[in-house]
Write a structure and sequence with these properties.
alpha+beta, 3-stranded antiparallel beta sheet, 2 helices, 3 strands
Length: 66
Amino acid sequence: MLKQYDPEVCLGHLKRYTFKGLRAATDHFNAKNILGKGGYGIVYKGTLNDGTTVAVKRLKDNNNFG
């Protein structure tokens, strides 16, 4: 019998955050919080509700051309 895939097991010690929470932490992905840009997206500095400073990569939408 095949085991059911459980994403919580694969994450280990990593935490999951909602998009809404990350958007709030980065002040709605404000340009003033940009740390860097790369081929896959832009990295923003943010602060979580508990005061933890984080870097959040917002991936590019591959459906946009041009």
